[in-house]
Amino acid sequence: MSERQQPWVAEPEQRGRILVLTDNPIARSIAVIASTVGRPVLVESADDGGPGLDPQEGDAVVLCDHDAPDAPSVLRSALASDAVYVAMMASRRRAEGLVEELVGEGYDVSRLHVPAGHDLGGRAPGEIALSVVAEIVAESYGRPGGPMSG
Question: 0.70 cut: is pTM over it?
Answer without folding.
Answer: yes
